[in-house]
Amino acid sequence: MTARIIDGKTLAVAVREEVAAGVAALVSAGAAVPELAVVLLGDDPASHVYVSNKVRQTEAAGMRSRRYLLDADTTERRLLELIEALNRDATVSGILVQFPLPPHIDTARVVTTIRPDKDVDGFNPLNVGRTAAGIEGALVPCTPLGVMRLIKSVHEDIAGLGALVVGASNVVGRPMARLLLQELCTVSIAHIRTTDLERRCSEADILVVATGVPGLIRGHFIRPGATVIDVGITRITSGSGAEKLVGDVAFDEAVKVAGAITPVPGGVGPMTIACLLANTLSAARMKAARSKAPDADPATAA
Ligand code: NAD
């Protein structure tokens, strides 16, 4: 058996086209062009590449973007003041602060400061709580949102399926588990202290892996026919000195056992940025709806 390869690049194109059509419809209905503000601290080359891609794709979907490139030693106070100014700025629909932040900045304080209805990364506790409670209208973190779209390209209905999420970070694992639960999967979460990972993986109809440990999930861990989503991305240098990106799943083994599997690269990665655009459009739509119902409380209208 050879698994179906889930093509994240093609699916991401479809999401970006949906977003572009949604932006055009919103603007022709009289709303302002959605605008994404991206804030980056420091010189990390990978973060600069991510930010450039986000800005380019935002603009390609018909939205505006602005970029704030700050020094790595920018104080927390200065960063929070910038976020508060963007919170108040009526032309900004979405705010994204690129992670990781330098160690002198309290990440939790940053995500709590971003207005929930502009929080296109979905990390503000109000959005986290709303997603956990299954309340509609929350902005959901982009990577898990993209993973749900990938899973739904394979399964029409996932209710009742057993899902294992390996990795329990706030960025991927935990919100992923909440979304799967929302769709009525029977969900387990594994993490660094989980015992008997192999057995737990072998029981999962849907296996989502986000650990950053290359090749952690071997082929024989996987239930035959399972859907395997590999979120992990690690840059490694091969014997010949060439750099390449690898996932957390031993792909060559897993592809012989799984029913469907995402490649790395070309699986989850492209969907993450596409879902950021979708979240920026969602935020702009909420803003447009609020301007029609001005009595709504903007601070809690995520
Ligand atoms: P993280 O370091 O914050 O969390 C890793 C999680 O994996 C932790 O919960 C930890 O307990 C668990 N873990 C670590 N080793 C393990 C092991 N041996 N067995 C079981 N669990 C283990 O990482 P993160 O931010 O969640 O990212 C995870 C991976 O996903 C990284 O490779 C990252 O680059 C990638 N990522 C990709 C995208 C994308 O768009 N494709 C987005 C976000 C993260």
Task: Describe the fold and architecture.
Helices cover 40% and strands 16% of the residues. By secondary structure, it is of the alpha/beta class. The protein has 2 domains: 32-116, Leucine Dehydrogenase, chain A, domain 1 (Rossmann fold, 3-Layer(aba) Sandwich); 142-269, Rossmann fold (3-Layer(aba) Sandwich), CATH 3.40.50.720. The protein has a 6-stranded parallel sheet. The chain is globular. The structure holds nicotinamide-adenine-dinucleotide. Nicotinamide-adenine-dinucleotide (NAD) binds next to helix 10. Nicotinamide-adenine-dinucleotide binds next to helix 10.
| Low-pLDDT stretches | none
Rounded mean pLDDT is 95
Estimate the global geometry from the Cα principal axes: globular
Task: Supply the number of structural domains.
Answer: 2
Please give the largest β-sheet: 6 strands, parallel
Bound ligands: nicotinamide-adenine-dinucleotide
Output the CATH topology of the largest domain: Rossmann fold
β-sheet strand percentage: 15-25%
What is the straight-line distance between the termini? 45 Å
Write down the CATH class of the largest domain: Alpha Beta
CATH homologous superfamily grouping of the largest domain: NAD(P)-binding Rossmann-like Domain
Helix content: 40-55%
* Order of strands, widest sheet: 1-11-8-7-5-6
Quickly count the helices.
10
Which radius of gyration do the C-alpha atoms yield?
Answer: 19 Å
Taken in chain order, the helices and strands follow as EHEHEHEHHHEHEHEEEEHEH
